[in-house]
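Researcher: I'm preparing a figure for a lab meeting and need a structural model of a single chain. I don't have an experimental structure, so a prediction will have to do for now. The sequence is pasted below. Please return the structure as tokens so I can convert it later.
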Amino acid sequence: MPDLTDSSLYLNRELSWLKFNTRVLTQSLKKELPLFERLKFLAIYATNLDEFYMIRVAGLKQLFSAGVIETGADQKTPLDQLREIRAYLASEKEVIQSSYEEIVKDLEKENLFITDYDDLSPALAKLSDDYFFSNILPVIVPIAVNATHPFPHLNNLSFSLAVKLQDSESEEESNYKYGMIRIPRVLPRFFQAGDNTYVPIETIVRKHTEEIFPGYKLVASAAFRVTRNADMVIEEEEADDFMMIMEQGLKLRRKGAFVRLNIQEGTDPDLLNFLNSHMQIFFKDIYTYKIPLNLGALWQIVGNKDFSHLALPPYNSKILPPFDTNESVFKVIDKGDVLLFHPYESFDPVLRLIREASKDPKVVSIRMTLYRVEKNSQIVQALIDAANEGKQVTAVVELKARFDEENNLHWAKALEQAGAHVVYGITGFKVHAKIAQVIRQEEDGKLKFYMHFSTGNYNGATAKVYTDTSFFTCKEDFAKDGTMFFHILSGFSKHKKLDTLSMSPTQIKPKVISLINNEAKYGTEGRIIVKMNSLVDSDVIQALYNASMQGVQIDIIARGICCLRPGVEGISENIRVKSIIGKYLEHARIFYFKNGDPTTTFISSADWMPRNLERRLELMTPIFDKALQQKLFEILQLQLNDNVLSWTLGNDGEYTEIEPTDERAINNHTVLEDYMNKIYKAQKKDTSSHKAEKLAKRLFKES
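Model: Understood. Here is the structure written out token by token.
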């Protein structure tokens, strides 16, 4: 037997993530995509990289400082990883710049311009000047740095202009002053001059520097942006006021150590030395760019409705059978389990369930987990309405949801003020499970439980762009486990297990390994297809290697990180790994095991990563209904057949983009959009839900 713990069998987590982000960046290079779509992918790439540096690189730096040697199954040291990350990103810088420059040139052909102040026409320069004096000058902060003016605190991802100045009345050339102009976040990244021209705001500020520092001449300037360690380490004790601790943690995040500096290319050496003498950033974490910094702000341009023809045609999610009538959501679920696939099928039935429950006098209780919700959440508002109506409302609000802490604190306070019982999770764990329970009193006085399980957050905004599964049921087994799960969250419990559902940190990992091992017993008759965001856990990977060695055919659709090395002779020859990057962010977790008993198919809130399986409360939900199993299986098969948005992972750790062969191109996103549109049109012609569902099955097979 080969040694399945051999480090060569495992790909590095951080480098695997970087390759995922490269796949995102590659989308911005595709000329067949509309220009706004390409801009979107540049923005997503940049935002992803910000978070990677704030959390992952910052964490590696801390491990290195602490003297930690090995960090994962691949046995790379923190220093090894930092070196490889820096080399990788340095080599990718030219791709980012050339992609941006190419898109800008192509936008000019469409009469849309991204232009520095110095290149503006006199008329547009006048508009920019007026904007500077009316909107910029009153809110910017000019900062001198000298013996009486200390170097200022710079918030994470703050954007500023460093300046090198000289007294305009002094004849001494070496008598320089250094300072900066802080550009606050209340200002847009670009000033829209006229209908079709966007001006980077720092170029306007640079033009007026001598008016900001009167009596001084501008010698040199450089736009720069800093990244800090934003990982919050919360030391929890059961007696602590957790909301207060989180509020303190959010303040401390702004003061994390500097981990990266992005700065304008060609910066005056003295100016760069001035900045870094105060920030002390390792020189290989200083990235210079000849394009505007903070590409994440390109969403401002993408939002211009006058140029909507430069984006992909919008798709409106469809409300399909059985939720296509005015019938009560409860009556629909009474008739049988329902499974939706967002965003192709609308998120509206989920919202309807909570809204209807908040108003129904027969509903006595609503319980939900809330991980990431939008700022104007209709679901949370419905829970507040229910609490105001006197219903028992329990909301598990995860305050540790990274970068959503502030929003979640806001909603937690609002829910508490309305009279809801708010739980902040369990000490030492994040609650990442997606579950809702509505308890309703029937005519005979008995209580009936309506359950909803999801792979995605209760977030109406992301439900339009994330692919996720959504499952409704009123079966007693699910209701019993759902009640137990909420009791575990809100009370004291030890060694509790669920019977139908599986819960991490105690049950999901053993269950997954057991399902994989069971498939291994069937050898070449075994079959596993799994879809998730990331695959990292080494124990699960070893089980997959073993199943492959027994002849089981395994397909893994992992959008982001995959630490499993496929195609290794004698070990993983029967494992194929693919990643799908396209219009929608693949977020669903679907697991299929051919020889599962009593079911073959599961959905889950959990990826196969140690954090999900060992340090979070997650749920894995079995799907027993044969029709719903078939629906999920066909979605998996469609994604395996996709040859437009797919990349395959080789045993060298590199991803190769799949190109359509002589057969027709299959883009699973457009196939599913077309499929849902056909059902919707057929449904309008024939209001019979039964006929529409029969047509749906036929159309899907044709697609």
